[in-house]
Amino acid sequence: MRKRHEWLTKPLKPKKMKRSGRLRIGLQDAIDRKVGVETTETSAS
Asked: Domain segments of the chain: what residues?
């Protein structure tokens, strides 16, 4: 059977956001925390 809506099968790409926009809504803080956790985990193990 032919797929009529190919775009439905693929996951959507997240929208590109500038750092200032991420800072305004608080996303950059979460990203910084995530990066900080990753570096401490790799150095600890």
From this structure: 18-45
Distance CA 27, CA 16 (A): 13
Tens-binned pLDDT, residue by residue, of the chain (45 aa):
676 777 777 788 888 888 888 888 888 888 888 888 776 666 665
Per residue, what are the HEC states of the chain?
A: CCCCCHHHHCCCCCCCCCHHHHHHHCHHHHHHHHHHHHHHHHHHC
The phi-psi region of residue 24 (left if phi > 0; otherwise alpha if psi is between -120 and 50; otherwise beta) is: alpha
Structure tokens at 35: 């990066």
